[in-house]
Give the backbone structure.
Amino acid sequence: METQSIVVLDFGAQYSQLIARRIRENKVFSVVLPFNASLDEIRSYSPVGIVLSGGPSSVYDEGAPHADKKVLELGVPVLGICYGLQFMVYALGGKVRPAEKREYGHATVERVADSRLFEGVPKVLSVWMSHGDSAEELPPGFRLTAKTANAVAAVENAEQKMWAVQFHPEVHHTPLGADILRNFALKICGAPPTWTGQHFIESTVAAVKAQVGKSDAICALSGGVDSSVAAVLVDRALRDSSAKSKLTCVFVNNGVLRKNEFEKVQQNLRDNLGLHLVAVDATERFMKKLAGVTDPETKRKIIGNEFIAVFDDEARRIEKEEGKVDWLVQGTLYPDVIESRSVRGPSQVIKTHHNVGGLPEKMKLKLIEPLKDLFKDEVRRIGRDLGMPEEILQRQPFPGPGLAVRILGEVTKERADMLRDCDEIVVGEIKKAGLYQKIWQSFAVLLPVMSVGVMGDQRTYAYTCAVRAVHSEDGMTADWVPLPYEVLKTISNRIVNEVRGVNRIVYDITSKPPGTIEWE
Ligand code: XMP
């Protein structure tokens, strides 16, 4: 099956995947390739259009990324964005004026000529501009179609199927940018809006089959959206109707999962979805290691290391029973890839995030990351197309170190049980109020603060539970949610009445920054 696509050539911009994602929103398949991808590789995606992305360089810089000029001669429409505009101008014989330094910001663009790229877009529009080098002399046949007060904003040579914009249509700060990319994909390239999750599933399954061949793979499953969707997808590739899957999923109970989670995840993924799932209850191992530890970073490190140790033990056992394992499946998403890329230089460690980092190196496994080009909502859609239950797909994020980062002070089994009960009430009431899917995260935190209370005629002296609910786009920043008083009231009443050991409830009204979402 041939999927026509729009190929985005990446010149080093932070936003290249976002361009592809905006195009995919129109049901047109789009893929990002490095700027120096060979023509054969580009052709293998059956391109009906090419986008040249932005990038931090100047075309005249030594070592600046230059694509093969033949990409401009493939006969399909090309859209240059920012650096892509300059590369186009430079490659086709125009002149670019280098700027001292690049600046980004809001700008107002005025259209000065009709253009199919701007069809349906008002004459004046606000955009997110990157002022950098600017086109000084246009290549033959090109004309200016939009400008800012002092710079070129868009140029084109429609006869030669070349379009280019200096601003970034892919970012939120360009409100009508999606329209411009839609015009390019659907109207100018004439790409068929037929790409669906089903296409992605079929092509990924085929690719994983080809990549992994007859070897075995293993997956660290958390029960969350990302690892579950990755596992189900790879399972399809590594299973033929007669044989059992060559993918073994390992799900570890680290003793700080939520209430009944160990059982529920097994039920969902093994019983309902048929994954070959090995569930390891390592509660004791983790609790022993965590005994007496109160420092947040130490807790995180202990859980991360112990997880790797447990997983390693399991992998060895599986290898003994089933043969050599060569591959590790990870549910890495595109935002995880950006975050771990050190484009912003070494930044201070606020919290060491633990998932399965460190595993591939230690176990000498090769990685399969089928979701690494996608964003969370795209992964949810794929999960839905795979027939996965909403309970998994709509799950709010849950940190790798689990409830340990929500139990301040020492983590013990008793405290974990207490927090599990509080957490179940918070999440249950929020679901009942129909708010669960509208909120990024909502949970309870157990504080080692004891205070005096009165229940019946009895004096109590017990722990404090903090309730937290935040809105967020990506977890990087967050706002606290003004939960309805009624919901807060029910949560508070129920926790004090139903959870022994807790007699006071407080609501966390801190945004991130300056707070973080988790308390540790
Ligand atoms: P913070 O607390 O840093 O959290 O504001 C931001 C987001 O990341 C989640 N989080 C983690 N996720 N492993 C994860 O997979 C971790 O170690 C981890 N620590 C925090 C947190 O729940 C929030 O969504």
